[in-house]
Design goal:
mainly alpha; MetI-like fold; 2 domains; three-stranded antiparallel sheet; elongated
Length: 306
């Protein structure tokens, strides 16, 4: 079989997988929702904030001040007056569609119901709820992907070592995994966070360090199967070192279940972060996160449902 035939076969397999995937309507809806949330997190500065996207003031043009830096604006004492500044002659400001900062407080507008000014109302400190949800998406999605990235890295390394070498190495790592799984991960995260300063970085690291056992077991099982295949035996016979066999030959063929597990892991990490923030162990206020928003709103649900 020529190289062209192999490439054609790979392309046809990918097309077949994609066609089968498209037939799964719930899966397509899930992918669409993840993409929407990812776009909201990525473009949060363009969707919500009191800093204009493009503005002209005093014959100076500011491009993307909401993304690049606040330094020049703060130097001119403009930043804290954006919510009241109106362009004069020859000036303009192109603001995000939700022109409110997730941190800016206005006690005169506290607990305002949904309306033209605030589409989802305001919280107990007069902050725009929709703006906080948009920026909370960035926090929650960041926690999900980075925490799962840490868990995947640890799980791949330990699972690959256990599955490839077997014997005493496999037994030692497998016993460690089983002991780790016996401890409820959420309570372990709460216990560790109780001794650490609440921060987004600590949350990512702790969730990542507690979420690897399932991935390690998946990788171990795949390596036990893949190392018996003919290509792995041929790689050993050709004299390749263990590191090259593991990372260049076995690992690419063992990643399929890891991707599936990582997908669910992102959702689990987001729920864990929300739960931690709701219990007071998560992202410190006034930073907006989904759990923090729920925590702050629970006292007002009876008379201010928004």
């Amino acid at each position: 079989m020529t190289e062209t035939d192999l490439q054609t076969e790979k392309t046809s397999r990918r097309s077949l997988v994609w066609r089968q995937f498209k037939k799964n309507k719930p899966a397509m809806v899930g992918v669409a929702l993840v993409l929407v949330l990812g776009l909201v997190a990525l473009f949060a500065p363009f969707l919500a904030g009191d800093v204009p996207i493009v503005m002209r003031k005093d014959a100076k043009l500011y491009l993307l001040p909401n993304v690049i830096t606040y330094g020049a604006l703060q130097a001119e004492n403009m930043y804290r007056n954006f919510d009241r500044w109106e362009p004069g002659p020859g000036e303009f400001a192109w603001r995000p569609p939700i022109p409110y900062s997730p941190l800016r407080q206005n006690l005169r507008e506290r607990l305002e119901p949904p309306g033209r000014e605030h589409w989802l109302g305001t919280d107990d400190r007069g902050r725009d709820v929709l703006s906080r949800i948009v920026w909370g998406t960035r926090i929650s999605m960041s926690v999900g992907f980075i925490a799962v990235g840490i868990a995947v890295l640890i799980g791949i390394v330990l699972g690959a070592l256990a599955g490839f070498y077997g014997g005493a190495v496999d037994a030692l790592i497998l016993r460690f995994i089983e002991i780790w799984i016996c401890v409820p991960s959420f309570f372990l995260v709460i216990t560790v966070m109780a001794f650490l300063e609440p921060s987004i970085v600590n949350i990512m690291v702790v969730i990542g360090l507690t979420g690897w056992p399932g991935i390690a077991r998946l990788v171990r099982g795949e390596f036990l199967k893949q190392k018996q295949q003919e290509y792995a035996i041929a790689a050993r016979a050709s004299g390749l070192n263990d590191r090259r066999i593991i990372f260049r030959h076995l690992l690419p063929n063992a990643l399929s279940p890891v991707f599936v597990s990582a997908t669910f892991g992102v959702a689990g990490a987001i729920l864990t972060e929300s739960g931690l923030s709701f219990l007071g162990f998560g992202v410190p206020p006034p930073t907006a996160s989904w759990g923090e928003i729920l925590k702050q709103s629970q006292s007002y649900v009876d008379f201010a449902w928004w």
